[in-house]
Amino acid sequence: MKILVTGGLGFIGSHTVVELQNEGFEVVIIDDCSNADEKVLDGIGAITGKTPIFEKIDLKEKNDVADFFQRHHDIEGVIHFAASKAVGESVENPLLYYENNIGTLVYILKALSKKERSNFIFSSSCTVYGQADEMPITENAPVKVAESPYGNTKQMGEEIIADTCKVTEGLNAIALRYFNPMGAHPSAEIGELPIGVPQNLVPFITQTGVGIREELSVFGDDYPTADGTCVRDYIYVVDLARAHVVALKRLIDKKNRANYEIFNVGTGTGSSVLQVIESFERVSGKKLNYKVVDRRPGDVISAYADTTKANNELGWKSEYTLDQAMKSAWDWEQKIRNKS
Ligand code: WQD
Q1: Could you give the CA distance from residue 124 to residue 176 in angstroms, rounded to a whole number?
Q2: Domains of the chain
Q3: What angle, 0 to 180 degrees and rounded to 10, lies between the N-to-C axes of helices 11-22 and 237-252?
Q4: 230 lines ligand 1 (CB under 6 A)
Q5: 181 Cα nearest atom in ligand 1
Q6: Which atom of ligand 1 is nearest to the CA of 154?
Q7: What is the pLDDT of residues 136-187, one digit of tens each?
Q8: Could you give the CA distance from residue 69 to residue 27 in angstroms, rounded to a whole number?
Q9: Based on C-alpha coordinates, what's the Rg of the chain?
């Protein structure tokens, strides 16, 4: 069964391709390589023994998208990761985000709408909740006014899919709202490859641990949380990847209850910034060099998932601990810096 993975050379995409191939799916990757390296194909091949088909296509070229689906009419499902995802960059360059994240989604949905039946998994984000009023966050929590154009493209993406599913009987879609993905494949053949100074906490920690960064800045310790630092739901990227395979199978096996469904994908446990630092120190045996600085504008105080729906309805549950995920991130960092 052939599955298209857009953005399949990226961090979450590549880990999902591995899990799909492990389950026997044939995978075709589309990626424009704007934020990922073609060498990731070798890592995937090293893990699964099979290198996926790869086509370098700019999904903003609608004729190229239509042509792709003409040539691959036997695509049984699409997992759509391809998008720009840097919150700060989206504030500076909103049109880049609306064109890349919305335009491409529209072209893919137009192609899928022509098929008798299509199965579509959308990469969404807990960012749609903003600062939710209650913890843990359920899928019924209100979607709040987006804090950034990036977050807005996820909200708009969900609405575009919902509206399209309402009038396109053959289209079956699931939006997965990720919490905070982290870590790397246990083989250390693939992992997160942030370009430039990492925005996210975990790669900044491991780069500090390996000596690329002088010290970690902790953005505020005066929040109304147990230790004053922000709380997030850090989910191991392999757990997250497996959630995509489970969701895809739900649609292929026609087990979905509606032709558009939404699931939170997290561990259900909140961890503070200081707890994540302690996890790094436990798994690496190193003291992390950090200092507390001012809060980062736009940060929510706390966000962690209520995973009841994913556990009971989707039939997926995260299996790895924070320390296991952190160990994989640390092993990966040392390997790519040739320090292991
Ligand atoms: C986590 C915590 C920071 C860096 C982002 C996107 C979100 C989603 C997941 C795509 C916060 C603190 C961070 C640092 C720090 N991405 N921190 N020092 O902001 O929760 O979510 O990634 O969907 O859309 O916004 O993740 O890793 O940036 O921050 O203290 O150098 O770590 O303040 O409390 P975030 P993050």
Answers
A1: 5
A2: 2-182+236-265 (3.40.50.720), 201-232+268-333 (3.90.25.10)
A3: 60
A4: yes
A5: 9
A6: 23
A7: 999 999 999 998 999 999 999 999 999 999 999 999 999 999 999 999 999 9
A8: 14
A9: 19
